[in-house]
Amino acid sequence: MGARRADSALKDWIAAHGIAEVECLLADQNGVARGKIISAADFVGHARTQSLRLASSALSITITGDYAAYKGDAILDPDLRLEPDPQSLAVLPGFEGTRAGVFCEPLTQAGEPWPSAPRNVLKALIRLYAGIGLRPVIAPEIEFYLLGEEGARPAPYGLEAMARRGSFFAAVERASAAAGIELAGALAECGPGQLEINLRHGDPVRRADQAVLFKRIVRHAARELGLAATFMAKPMGREASSGMHFHLSLVRAKGEANAFADARGADTDALRWFIGGLQAFLPEIAPLYAPHPNSYRRMRPRYSAPVTLAWGRDNRSCGLRIPLSDPANRRVEVRAPGADANPYLAMAAALAAGWLGMERRLEPGPEVKDAIAYGQKPEFPRTLDEGLARLATCQPICELLGDPFIGVFLAVKNAELHSFSDVITPWEREHLLDQV
Q1: Global confidence as pTM
Q2: Confidence grade of residue 136 (pLDDT, cut at 50, 70, 90)
Q3: Which residues are CB-neighbours of 223 under 8 A, at least 6 positions away?
Q4: Among candidates 283, 280, 277, 282, which has minimal Cα distance to 361?
Q5: Is 271 helix (H, G, I), strand (E, B) or coil?
């Protein structure tokens, strides 16, 4: 979309929706929304003159709210130029329809994509696929817990439990519709108060934008009912963890045919090699989909966690599942990402691994048939520390995602890990304080 058409689209949408204020948004390394709030009139003016700015240090803020310096950027702190994406305009919950949010493309002053921005990392991979005539399509499935509820533990997939939460789901559906987010379904999960809501399949960048907004919608709906919602990967020690599985397919730009199935409906080389790439490289880039120390409490046997990258058809014990479908909908369900992951980076991780698999024609391991994969030896790093070390030395991924992004991401994660290591846990006090 040209600059003049984009300006017109922004102005027309704001006028049509009666918007008074606009949040200019970008997601940091953790997927947390950062940005600024300005009046709608000022926003339209700044968008027209390309004068929206934000400190680049917004992209190097840790989950604790500190700055992680990377080659002096946090000290020099040059400005990002923000280019609003009209397609991402959305009415935000909690402001009686008067405030909108828009995701912005972070650019250098010369107009180049800011290389450490997670949204730009994902967009670069999509351009890579476009160069060989392929378009990725992704549908996220996001699990979370509602905290503060009373009553008996609901059964998984229980419809009565869903009915009791009718007010919550109605609020989520209204706010999602207002924000242009298409929901594809919801269900009760295994843990007490644990739910899953699915987004409809579509463009990865658009679905990642919507996943960031969706978390905000869920939290707002929960607060309105006196509850709290959490997307922590493992909020309760002996309960099920929360994932952000997503279904991924590749569509040919010419003709829209699914690249994972041939004209006879059989699996293609592209699907086989894509799975081979996921198996080879996802263990090396775990921090992109398991970004916190808590994330690795999820990556353990039991509790239905996908601890291996075995693959199988219609087998949920596998980390890589090929769901039952017709050829037009042939896809891979990537079950490793946690609900706490940055959606841009979790999607980028899978697309990067799959790209390398196709580029190198990597053959996958044997399909798991009529067996449970949970008992296999875990293939992922056991801790964030190990995951970061493996990511830092995975040269193919570093080259594909870019050294500037890798440098900032590692700086943020290592700063968070240092902060985490300062905390003495209740387990240590209980078992070590008086006994060792």
Answers
A1: 0.94
A2: very high
A3: none
A4: 277
A5: helix
